[in-house]
Amino acid sequence: MSLSRRRPLPLLIAGATAAALLLAGCSGGGDDGGGDPTPSASESTGAEVTEGSEGMPQASGQFGESPTFTFPDSAPPEGLQVDVLSEGDGPVVEPNAVVTANYYGIVWGSDTQFDDSYSRGAPSMFGLTQVVQGWTDGIPGHAVGSRLLISIPPDLGYGPQGGNPDAGIGAEDTIVFVIDVVETYNPGDAGQPDAAPTPEAADAPVVIDGALGEPVTFTIAEGAAEPTELTVIVLATGTGEPVASQQSVAVAYAFSYWDGSGTGSSWGWDGADPEGPFSAFAGQGTIVDATLDVPVGSRVLVLAPATEQAPASAAVIDVLGTA
């Protein structure tokens, strides 16, 4: 199992494009980690985070190593607890970011993990608005390269869903994680400033406000015809590795229905708060499918025809990274 949850706006984007992609809706696209997603959306609750509290378990190992836990005889401490086992020196994770992390999760007092990335041999990618509340509230403010020990009470973990019996997590269980923060993609992040513009960019039916490497808004060009088929236009080509099927992909985006009836943006649009980047597996029916075979760092325009569920739409997508 993983911690993944979905948030509404990227589902809106997927709804406008997935049918045209002839894919099976949005199913499966929200599992940004390596396992089995847990549903329902998460936004920061502003829960109080206590750091360096007494009564926390001991966790052995260095950054990048699978930990071993030793639990005290006492009951779990109350509330959300975060101990910094080692401090990184990379960028600080911001609210609503997408992070790549190694992690090991265990029920308080257990001797067996319910999920971990170390055994899979690679870190996993998660949107912090797509995970259990303890991650949403506990990880921001810490630097890439940090190793965190987080104790999550039931109300900020799996309690609201009645636990997770398949993982051996009860509705009243406190869960504990060691998390090694490997990378962050923050709400202000965009693609490569030096990505190479393509000839197709000059004929794109949108007028973009925002240089390469900067946040974007756009308008539909005057007189531009509604798309009648799905079209993916690479506006600028980055120098990273091309996105492969089944990779987790982090993207920044700006989105608008063709008739202007709805907009959204990871960067924020018209004064709205930034939604933060979106992440999903490529090839499973979400907007990130438009990045397949596109190098990391690129900027892409997706034009989607109207469906029974939504008007025609356009989205500008910056490919931030993969895992």
Automatic annotation (TrEMBL):
Residues 30-83 are annotated as: Disordered. Keywords: Isomerase, Rotamase, Signal. Its EC number is 5.2.1.8. It is an enzyme of class 5 (isomerase). GO terms for molecular function: peptidyl-prolyl cis-trans isomerase activity. Residues 59-71 have a biased composition (Polar residues). InterPro entries: PPIase_dom_sf, PPIase_FKBP_dom. Residues 1-29 form the signal peptide. It catalyses: [protein]-peptidylproline (omega=180) = [protein]-peptidylproline (omega=0). Residues 96-185 form the PPIase FKBP-type domain. Belongs to the FKBP-type PPIase family. This is peptidylprolyl isomerase. It comes from Occultella aeris. The gene is fkbP_3.
